[in-house]
Amino acid sequence: MIRTGAFLGVVLFAAGASGAEEKVVITRADCQRIVRHVPGADVAYQPGVDVHGRKVVGADLPDSGNVIAQKMIPEVLEIPITINPVNWAERNAANKQKAAAEAAIAASAQAKVTAAAELGTLTGQRTTLLAQSTTLASELTTLNTTLATMQAEVAAGTRFRYNKEYLAAQSAVTAKQAEIATNTSALATNATALATRNAVLDPAAAQLTTLTTQQTTLQTQATTLTTELATLSATLATLQAEVTAGTRFRYNKEYLAAQSAVTAKQAEIATNTSAIATNAAAVAAQQAIVDAPATQSTSEIQKTSAEATLSGLSAKGFDSVTMSAGTVKFDILKGTFTFNGEPMGAADQSALAEACRKRGVK
Fold it and tell me: Which sign does the torsion angle of CA 239, 244, 245, 246 carry?
């Protein structure tokens, strides 16, 4: 055996007719062809035949694997759309009203849960702020007393105006007043937040509270206006007496102004009186609502109305009537939707097609 270049050769020697030796070289490729295994015909797997050559049922059934999948999932999915044509518009409107009412009721219920939780927190905050307010007022009283004593000393000349303690007392009072202002603002904000949450939990009671507060304000305004009118009327009466006595000219500027002031104040009182009457009627009406047995909310009334409409339509006995409106087709391979042959190219349909492909519907 010799190595020649890139191949391994086998050298055989044979004697020729001339008596000289001849070389026969066999390459690696020749060796591989010689030793290559060729299995017998009875060894390789043959579908439908057992090891003894007898016919048997093949392992690959005709409806297995992809064949079944292709039969179960066609290339185009069809979704028939049907409607009940009898009173369709009325039925559709009632269903929409009912759905909207149910959504509003659910939202209201959730809002009440949230408001109740927030109400507890806000009530706690208010208690803290009120206690803080009392403390701050007491502290301010003490500081003002100290400052007043020092101011008296400054006035008497026993304490210098720029005395360190006196200036510190002034600063302390100013700082405490700022704290009280902050506390007062926080209380106002808290009161508004509480009113908002109460309005969610009990709108009728909250409205009654608002109207009652307005009535109190109007009545206070009425008292003030009456006092102001009495003062103006007294002034006018004095001027009128002077005019009668001839000591004041009838067209005197002050006399005319007093007459105008009284007239304007009477107009204010008339407006206030009318507002009080209107508000009192509103308070009475709202009180009746609060005192009445529990009633349905607007959304509940709308839902009840829609259900009554649907019930009335069902009573006609046409609920089972159907009419084909068309067919939605989804081409799985193309990932496209059509309705009665018209493409549905909305972004959500594209997203749906993509979702179908991701889930193996191809």
Answer: positive
Q: Which residue has the tokens 């009425």?
A: 222
pLDDT at residue 67 in the model: 55
Long-range CB contact pairs, 270-275, < 8 A, 24+: 272/218, 272/221, 272/222, 272/225, 273/222, 275/218
Q: Rounded to whole angstroms, how far apart are CA atoms 274 and 222?
A: 11
> What is the pTM for the complete model shown?
0.48
Length of the chain: 362
SS3 1: coil
Q: Which residue has the tokens 């409607």?
A: 83
Q: Report the alpha-carbon distance of residue 269 to residue 263 in Å, rounded.
A: 10
Q: Which long-range contacts (CB under 8 A, 24 or more apart) does 17-23 make?
A: none
Considering only residues 163 and 46, tell me which one the structure prediction assigns the higher pLDDT. 163
Kindly state the percentage of the chain with pLDDT values over 70. 75
Neighbouring-strand partners of residue 3: 8
Integer Cα distance of 214 and 217 in angstroms? 5
C-alpha 114/C-alpha 155 separation (Å) is 59
Mean pLDDT, rounded, for 178-203: 92
DSSP secondary structure, 112-175, as one string? HHHHHHHHHHHHHHHHHHHHHHHHHHHHHHHHHHHHHHHHHHHHHTSS-TT-HHHHHHHHHHHH
3-state DSSP call for residue 236?
helix
